[in-house]
Amino acid sequence: MTGPNPPDYVLVIRQSVLRAPVGTPRTRSDQVRHLKEVSGLPHVTIRVIPDAVGLTGALYFPFSLFTPAGDRPKTVYVETLTDGLLVDEESRISHYEAVFEELLEVSEVIDSFDG
């Protein structure tokens, strides 16, 4: 028995974040290795915003846009300094969709992740 195709995931990340020294060298190595593994999955796309792009609409708040199959409602999860927020109001979700579209326009798909 085969299940439905896994959902498509798109990760958009700034180039400078990939170069930022975070944690120990071992932590960074583990993170890069994980991104390499994930980028090889057929349902995952990693896009990078080049440093030359400058500021974007999503500069200060990471968010995830969940678009379920069928007629189930979209939801946005926004990370803040102290907690996370779930946004389910259609009028507010449209703002996040617009920012996500901007991120897609200014980012580039990477074929292989070299860190």
Query: Structural class given helices, strands, pairing?
Result: alpha+beta
Write the H/E string, N to C.
EHHEEEEHE
Uncertain residue segments:
none
Multimeric state: single chain
Largest sheet: 3 strands, mixed
The number of strands is 6
Strand content: 15-25%
Number of H/I helices: 3
Largest beta sheet: strand ordering: 1-2-6
Radius of gyration of CA atoms, rounded to a whole number = 16 Å
Q: Helix proportion of residues, in percent?
A: 25-40%
What number is the mean pLDDT?
Answer: 85
Describe this structure in words.
There is one protein chain. The chain is 32% helix and 23% strand. It has a three-stranded mixed beta sheet with strand order 1-2-6. Strands 3-4-5 form a three-stranded antiparallel beta sheet, with helices on one face. The mean pLDDT is 85. It is of the alpha+beta class. It starts with 8 loop residues before the first strand and ends in a 6-residue tail after the last strand.
Note the topology.
Blueprint: E1 9-14, H1 15-19, H2 25-39, E2 44-49, E3 63-66, E4 75-79, E5 84-87, H3 90-106, E6 108-109
Parallel strand pairs: 1-2
Antiparallel strand pairs: 2-6, 3-4, 4-5
What key attributes describe this structure?
115 residues; alpha+beta
Structure summary:
The protein has 115 residues and is α+β, with helices and mostly antiparallel strands. Helix content is 32%, strand content 23%.
